[in-house]
Design brief:
Blueprint (H helix, E strand, L loop, with lengths): L5 H15 L1 H11 L2 E2 L2 E2 L4 H9 L7 H9 L4 H12 L1
Antiparallel strand pairs: 1-2
Length: 86
């Protein structure tokens, strides 16, 4: 079945991986847009968004994504969102 349907098999595997390991899927994406373990990365999309949205609201989207990148309360929210989307 896998050889006959490689795209479908890949989608099932990726979706299953995202369900089982949602932060493994989300962490590289957060890092790619500039949400780092020590805060927004200078010169990144995240730092540009922070300067536009300043002051950042506690519990808002930006704060939650940054918290997820730092392993805080946002990690559970992002993990649940990834699982729901997969």
């Amino acid at each position: 079945w896998i050889r006959e349907h490689p795209l479908q098999a890949t989608c099932y595997a990726v979706g299953g991986g995202m369900m089982l390991f949602p932060l493994a899927a989300a962490t590289p994406v957060l890092g790619a847009v500039g949400f780092g373990a020590a805060g927004p990365v200078a010169g990144s999309l995240a730092s540009a968004a922070q300067s536009i949205w300043a002051p950042v609201a506690s519990g808002g989207l930006f704060a939650t994504l940054q918290s997820a990148a730092m392993g805080g309360y946002g990690a559970a929210i992002v993990a649940g969102t990834v699982q729901a989307a997969s």
